[in-house]
Amino acid sequence: MDINFIIAISTMGGLGFLFAGGLALADRKLRVEENPLIGKINDALPGANCGACGKAGCYDFAVNVVEGKAKVNGCPVGGDETAQAVALLMGVEAGATVKSIPRVMCRGGNAEAMRKLAEYYGPLSCSAMDLVAGGEKMCYYGCLGGGECVEACPFNAMVMNEDGLPEVIEELCTGCGVCATACPRDIIEMHPADRNVFVFCKNHDDPKASKDVCSVACIGCGICARKSDGGIIMDNNLGVIQYDTIDVDKIPFDKCRTGAIQRIDGVTGKDVSVN
Amino acid sequence: MELLLLFLSAAIVNNFVLSYFLGICPFIGVSNKISSAFSMGLAATFVMTITSIVTWLIYHKILVPFELEFLQYVSFILVIASLVQFVEMFIKKVSQPLYRALGIFLPLITTNCAILGLALFIVLKEYSFIEGIVFGLGAGTGFTLAITLMAGIREELDLADVPKPFQGAPITLIVAGILAMAFMGFAGLI
To answer: Over the stretch A46-60, which tens digit does the pLDDT of each residue have?
Structure first.
């Protein structure tokens, strides 16, 4: 056999041994003990890194869960399934998670809201419309109809209906809250999915003014508040529901002249569509 | 003086990233934040400097005497891979957030052409041991300079109103091109 052959093999072999030995030493000195649970929980999470849990991302959430700083059901996007999986890994009970659903607090679509004499020409984005004299509708509190929430939704769970109002497709919605952040008028609010009573209006104008700008506005008459035993309070001409104390059966839905306060599970018998 | 010129030449005039276009992958990949870009630069500088020392020793003290020059790629890659593995362990131990910020680009230093290129340049240009170290240090400094500059520009770009078709990778590549053009201004300085 050629002597060169042996030299080549032994040289590379020697170098290999040298570096492998060095790395083995370094590994002993620098080994990081990582809780294997973190990786497993990370795998159980959706992995979208959306930050809806309030942590920097899915991995960060997993670290916080293992350290006990975050709840096992703290991932709003993963919902019940993820919560159960994480709870199983952590060996605790998940408890029930209630999904948050965005509710559009305005029913003043193209048919209901009065329009200004001026017309808006420009980019079809709510923030732009809001800047330019508050858009085309007379109401300065209501939905602008630009669809910024629809565009913002990462899960395609929002559509504009024919009335020019955004509608939530609950089957697709993960409750991440991106649409609520996108709305420049804070009309979209995140509510637990089991809440069924809402005042679908944000208008703080006095009764006459609000009646003039929209046919479905809360005019601030206060009938619902008087009958609700503190379940609804009037704040600056707008009924605000106190979800901790409200007794739904006491609310006189049929007394609301504009239908601004609505029960959305259909019990009132009125023709009610979600949002 | 000679060594200082060599250092400046490697760091600025013949910048590895912006003149030779070596090591573009982390240059684009990790340059979205100054802090992680700078750390990436430091990691690459460390690997480059040690690589230049070790590969010089291996080439001139082992491969040349035994007439095994044909093993240079294999042995250089072995050196680089081992060093990168070491740096990865070190960073994982010292800073978990940095480890995650660098992500896949940290192990990818292994196949970073800037580093193998450096080792081959040292052989090609027949640098002495000291020259090799200075060259490696200069190349690393140049890499850090380039990637940090790029990260600074990209952080500002996040606030700029970039037209939609140019957002993301396209504007990054355009900026890299303009930055390279700016560095061409150093050509002929030394």
So the answer is: 877 777 777 777 888
